[in-house]
Design brief:
- The chain is mainly α and about 100 residues long.
- The protein has one domain (about 25-95).
- Helices cover about 85% and strands about 0% of the residues.
- It contains 5 helices and no strands.
- Helix 2 (about 30-45) runs antiparallel to helix 3 and helix 3 crosses helix 5 (about 80-95).
- The chain starts with a helix and ends with a helix.
- The relative contact order is 0.11.
- Residues about 5-25 have low confidence and may be disordered.
Length: about 100
């Protein structure tokens, strides 16, 4: 019985630590919203509303898993080629989700 209690405490602390650690490496919700609204209007012109929403949501979530706000700011202030290199994986991955 004691072992079960120790295991529960360990699992709860592990989950809390993972969630806290994960949030340290994610974009803030405000940054994600700004990124989405920077993506959506232009994408909507070429993809239509539904596909633009899917593409932009996917791209924001994918980038947020890899970069913090500060990292995004740093990359965004670099050259167009460096931005393309850094963000291309998300664009390619999410582009496949909207292919006909």
């Amino acid at each position: 019985m004691r072992h079960l209690k120790i295991l529960k405490i360990f699992l709860i602390s592990l989950i809390v630590n993972v969630l806290t650690f994960t949030n340290l490496f994610a974009m803030s919700e405000d940054y994600e919203k700004k990124l989405y609204w920077g993506c959506y209007p232009n994408s909507k012109q070429y993809l239509g509303a539904e596909k633009a929403d899917i593409y932009c949501s996917c791209t924001v979530k994918t980038l947020s898993k890899k970069f913090t706000d500060e990292e995004m700011d740093k990359i965004s202030s670099s050259s167009a080629q460096e931005q393309l290199t850094a963000f291309n994986f998300a664009s390619n991955y999410c582009g496949k989700m909207i292919e006909d």
